């Protein structure tokens, strides 16, 4: 459906669109003037061991007196105490009546506690922050005294960031305004197209055709009359996701409000408009990924209800709202790829574009690695802000870990590992034999070579999974050639980048010997997250609420899912990953040609990568990685639909050896739908 046709519908239904949009704008303007400006002051305290830890310190049988330990558990106990109702009443008696938050400091692996107070009176906020900081130290001493810890073994709370001068926080005001404007506009849009769908159905019952398209032939050549399809919409999403740093977002929407995500939501509106008016009918055999996302949506909604029923903080409520927006983005990507793409060639085009854009991101990663910088830090786009506090260039050993346009080096590694199988499949695709070796093998070399540059276990594990899944399915000649190329590549890395292979090897040797500090830090977090899980085991605390600024990084998608959406959410997440694996296996089993069988194996390998590396970092919380996963999940469902329809038709003689089987698209529509205007592919 073209943009001009969408505007024509909105013009016809102006009596719905205009009043609701104006109502949203007027309400937003009222909230902008009525909601007072909030001010926030912050301070930080660090827990320090006692002076007696030089001697062997007893534990006294409780975690409060864990002298000489990491003190992360002690900090967690203190945070929970300050968040309790008793502490809230005590602080209220001391004059702290504004909203305050306590949590682990962002990007801190040690016992660093962040305190903040938000209110509308600047002077009062500063005074309350000072009171809260002193109260934290008093509570820590009271906890240790109640546990009968000798004073010489007391853990101390030392302020390292004194209460800061309150700064204005306009984000809350913008969020209220944006929410009502979006709700009003979206309500007008849906009601307009709902009315249009009803009117079209009534015209068909009367034997009338669709509404005539107004305008001259010349006007239909403009951008408003240019046909759109899901591949075009998703290409725009991929360009925004890959080339705008994923830590930049709209201030009113927070971390979920990246330009790519906003574009995906607009794409969902375009799809719904086309569906309401009969321009798109989902192809049969493609429901698998949409059903899996429906299960995930049910888990997220149940977690949202759980969050609303437990008396969560204001920050957690906003985080849960952002989680719902993120869910809509994922739904949009799966729907556009699995139900919106009606032609096999257009789906092939989308996958090639995704691989090419991923190769550009990998190329930027080479620049970051060899120049010891990050090119994304120099990208500043008016109207966007960074949602990731303290984004900086990371290093490991003597090497800088690139992140390119991603939010973090782990996201960079995971995204490349997700796309490498498709780059390999496209390089071997007989349909692309006319392309030169640079066009076919360039993406494989760029993305495969960039994986070790991230100097992370995630990248090596992802590469190993791709190799172990794809190599056994190849013919012996190709398999041994690939093994030779891998051995030569390892030797080339040792020569060109001395010390890189040794650093990566040490990462795994330290992990196996349990001497790696990052592994120990993660183990501590796993034990620290269990109390939160026991509080809400079935539906969790709320999707998106377990944020690092309130709690801590989990570095494990499965543990994070357990905390936020409970056991139900973990089942939904596993179903999502297993759906991708099932689709890859089904494509390979049903395919008639070797090219399609290799495509199915690529989907299988990509889904296996996501399944495994989800245990190495909180994968779906990174917008670029999550977006690429859901695009490939929906694309797998769409390819499976094409393959199923091919398998249901009699195979022409010699087709199995002729390369890729032609696809005739979805089956003919029933007579009741034959008079509907159909989507014209661009």
From TrEMBL:
<keyword id="KW-0472">Membrane</keyword>
<dbReference type="InterPro" id="IPR051533">
    <property type="entry name" value="WaaL-like"/>
</dbReference>
<feature type="transmembrane region" description="Helical">
    <location>
        <begin position="288"/>
        <end position="305"/>
    </location>
</feature>
<feature type="transmembrane region" description="Helical">
    <location>
        <begin position="599"/>
        <end position="617"/>
    </location>
</feature>
<keyword id="KW-0436">Ligase</keyword>
<feature type="transmembrane region" description="Helical">
    <location>
        <begin position="174"/>
        <end position="195"/>
    </location>
</feature>
<feature type="transmembrane region" description="Helical">
    <location>
        <begin position="483"/>
        <end position="508"/>
    </location>
</feature>
<dbReference type="InterPro" id="IPR007016">
    <property type="entry name" value="O-antigen_ligase-rel_domated"/>
</dbReference>
<protein>
    <submittedName>
        <fullName>O-antigen ligase family protein</fullName>
    </submittedName>
</protein>
<feature type="transmembrane region" description="Helical">
    <location>
        <begin position="227"/>
        <end position="244"/>
    </location>
</feature>
<feature type="transmembrane region" description="Helical">
    <location>
        <begin position="558"/>
        <end position="578"/>
    </location>
</feature>
<keyword id="KW-0812">Transmembrane</keyword>
<feature type="transmembrane region" description="Helical">
    <location>
        <begin position="450"/>
        <end position="471"/>
    </location>
</feature>
<feature type="transmembrane region" description="Helical">
    <location>
        <begin position="354"/>
        <end position="376"/>
    </location>
</feature>
<feature type="transmembrane region" description="Helical">
    <location>
        <begin position="256"/>
        <end position="276"/>
    </location>
</feature>
<feature type="region of interest" description="Disordered">
    <location>
        <begin position="651"/>
        <end position="682"/>
    </location>
</feature>
<feature type="compositionally biased region" description="Low complexity">
    <location>
        <begin position="651"/>
        <end position="663"/>
    </location>
</feature>
<feature type="transmembrane region" description="Helical">
    <location>
        <begin position="623"/>
        <end position="642"/>
    </location>
</feature>
<keyword id="KW-1133">Transmembrane helix</keyword>
<dbReference type="Pfam" id="PF04932">
    <property type="entry name" value="Wzy_C"/>
</dbReference>
<dbReference type="GO" id="GO:0016874">
    <property type="term" value="F:ligase activity"/>
</dbReference>
<feature type="transmembrane region" description="Helical">
    <location>
        <begin position="14"/>
        <end position="39"/>
    </location>
</feature>
<feature type="transmembrane region" description="Helical">
    <location>
        <begin position="325"/>
        <end position="342"/>
    </location>
</feature>
<feature type="domain" description="O-antigen ligase-related">
    <location>
        <begin position="444"/>
        <end position="573"/>
    </location>
</feature>
């Amino acid at each position: 459906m073209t943009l001009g046709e969408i505007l024509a519908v909105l013009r016809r239904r102006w009596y719905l669109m205009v009043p609701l949009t104006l109502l949203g704008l007027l309400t937003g303007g009222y909230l902008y003037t009525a909601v007072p400006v909030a001010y926030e002051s912050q301070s930080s305290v660090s827990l320090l061991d006692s002076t007696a830890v030089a001697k062997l310190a007893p534990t006294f049988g409780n975690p409060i007196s864990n002298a000489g330990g990491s003190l992360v558990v002690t900090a967690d106990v203190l945070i929970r105490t300050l968040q309790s109702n008793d502490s809230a009443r005590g602080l209220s008696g001391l004059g702290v009546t504004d909203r305050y938050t306590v949590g682990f400091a962002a990007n801190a692996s040690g016992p660093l506690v962040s305190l903040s107070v938000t209110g509308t009176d600047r002077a009062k906020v500063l005074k309350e922050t000072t009171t809260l900081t002193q109260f934290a130290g008093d509570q820590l001493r009271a906890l240790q005294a109640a546990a009968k810890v000798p004073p010489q073994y007391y853990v101390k709370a030392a302020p390292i960031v004194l209460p800061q001068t309150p700064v204005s926080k306009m984000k809350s005001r913008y969020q209220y305004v944006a929410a009502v404007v979006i709700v009003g506009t979206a309500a007008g849009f849906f009601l307009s197209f709902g009315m249009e769908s009803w009117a079209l159905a009534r015209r068909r019952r009367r034997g009338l055709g669709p509404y005539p398209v107004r305008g001259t032939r010349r006007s239909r050549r403009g951008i408003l009359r240019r046909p759109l399809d899901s591949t075009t919409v998703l290409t725009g999403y991929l360009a925004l996701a890959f080339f705008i740093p994923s830590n930049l977002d709209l201030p009113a929407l927070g971390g979920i409000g990246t330009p790519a995500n906003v574009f995906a939501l607009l794409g969902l509106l375009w799809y719904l408009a086309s569906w309401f008016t009969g321009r798109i009918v989902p192809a049969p055999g493609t429901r698998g990924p949409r059903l899996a996302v429906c299960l995930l949506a049910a888990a997220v909604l149940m977690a949202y209800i759980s969050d609303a029923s437990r008396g969560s903080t204001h920050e957690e409520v906003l985080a849960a709202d952002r989680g719902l927006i993120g869910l809509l983005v994922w739904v949009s990507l799966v729907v556009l790829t699995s139900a919106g793409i009606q032609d096999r060639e257009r789906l092939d085009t989308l996958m090639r574009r995704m691989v090419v854009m991923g190769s550009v991101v990998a190329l930027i990663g080479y620049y970051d690695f060899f120049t010891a910088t990050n090119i994304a830090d120099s990208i500043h786009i008016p109207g966007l802000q960074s949602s990731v506090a303290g984004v900086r260039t990371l290093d490991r050993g003597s090497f800088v870990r690139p992140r390119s346009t991603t939010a973090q080096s782990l996201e960079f590694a995971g995204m490349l590992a997700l796309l490498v199988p498709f780059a390999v499949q496209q390089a071997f695709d007989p349909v692309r034999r006319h392309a030169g070796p640079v066009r076919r093998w360039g993406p494989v070399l760029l993305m495969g070579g960039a994986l070790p540059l991230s100097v992370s276990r995630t990248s090596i594990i992802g590469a190993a999974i791709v190799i172990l899944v794809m190599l056994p399915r190849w013919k012996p000649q190709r398999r041994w050639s690939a093994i030779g190329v891998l051995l030569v590549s390892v030797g080339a890395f040792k020569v060109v980048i001395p010390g890189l292979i040794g650093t990566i090897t040490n990462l795994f040797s330290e992990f196996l010997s349990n001497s790696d500090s990052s592994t120990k830090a993660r183990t501590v977090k796993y034990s620290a997250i269990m109390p939160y899980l026991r509080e809400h085991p079935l539906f969790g605390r709320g999707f998106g609420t377990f944020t690092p600024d309130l709690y801590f990084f989990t570095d494990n998608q499965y543990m994070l899912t357990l905390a936020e959406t409970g056991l139900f959410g973990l089942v939904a997440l596993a179903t999502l990953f297993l759906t991708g694996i099932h689709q890859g296996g089904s494509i390979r089993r049903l395919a008639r040609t070797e090219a399609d069988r290799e495509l199915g194996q690529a989907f299988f390998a990509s889904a296996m990568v996501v399944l495994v590396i989800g245990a190495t970092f909180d994968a779906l919380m990174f917008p670029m990685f999550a977006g690429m996963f859901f695009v490939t999940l929906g694309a797998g469902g769409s390819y499976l639909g094409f393959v199923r329809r091919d398998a249901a038709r009699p195979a022409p003689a010699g087709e199995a050896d002729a390369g890729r089987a032609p696809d005739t698209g979805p089956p003919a529509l029933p007579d009741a739908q034959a008079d509907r205007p159909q989507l014209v592919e661009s």
